[in-house]
């Protein structure tokens, strides 16, 4: 019997702090780890810390969450037991996403989640629906479509699988310097426009059901 780990993460980004003030909820990000050491995480997120609209499938590290002056981050971790077959299926799913350059962040669904509770776009995901899909592969029964789950929903869903809650110490990664690189405002505007245009075209011309796992 193996385990996968679902990690709810308190975000220290500017956007995360704003959301916390409005919602009163501590966690703004969620990721999957395949190892108890929690050195590597998988999710849909920004590819660089200062570029929120350049986002897609990511392998993340602890110093992506505890960046700059932060030496630790707060998290809640769930451990889900899985069979060898389920574990291998999840690994294949993650590998497929990592090799697919078309995978992008579903900004539209993220922005409208409080209103319509998520919707699918072809090869576009966010941290919540990706994690819910992995949880479903792990054999946990979902009572609604995976793309309808937000982080509080997932926290309730996994109430029977707690591992621990508390601070996780920062570990330096080789990718950190690239992750925290900065650029000018024009680059950020271009990345936003590119994300909006790409998502709009996919909403019009592609069906999400065309994406196979």
Number of strands: 8
| Uncertain regions spanning at least 5 consecutive residues | none
Percentage of helical residues? 25-40%
Q: Which of globular, elongated, flat, extended, rod-shaped describes the shape? A: globular
Order of helix and strand elements from N to C terminus: EHEEEHEHEHEHHEHH
**Secondary-structure content class:** alpha+beta
Q: Would you spell out the secondary-structure blueprint of this structure?
A:
Blueprint: E1 2-9, H1 14-23, E2 29-33, E3 40-48, E4 51-61, H2 62-65, E5 72-82, H3 84-98, E6 104-105, H4 107-116, E7 124-125, H5 127-137, H6 151-157, E8 162-169, H7 176-179, H8 185-205
Parallel strand pairs: 6-7
Antiparallel strand pairs: 1-2, 1-5, 3-4, 5-8
Characterise the protein shown here.
The structure is a single chain. The chain is of the alpha+beta class. It has one domain. The chain has 8 helices and 8 strands; from the N terminus they run βαβββαβαβαβααβαα. It has helices at 14-23, 62-65, 84-98, 107-116, 127-137, 151-157, 176-179, 185-205, and strands at residues 2-9, 29-33, 40-48, 51-61, 72-82, 104-105, 124-125, 162-169. The protein has a 4-stranded antiparallel beta sheet with strand order 2-1-5-8. Strands 3-4 form a two-stranded antiparallel ribbon. Strands 6-7 form a two-stranded parallel sheet. α4 (107-116) links the parallel β6 (104-105) and β7 (124-125). The mean pLDDT is 94.
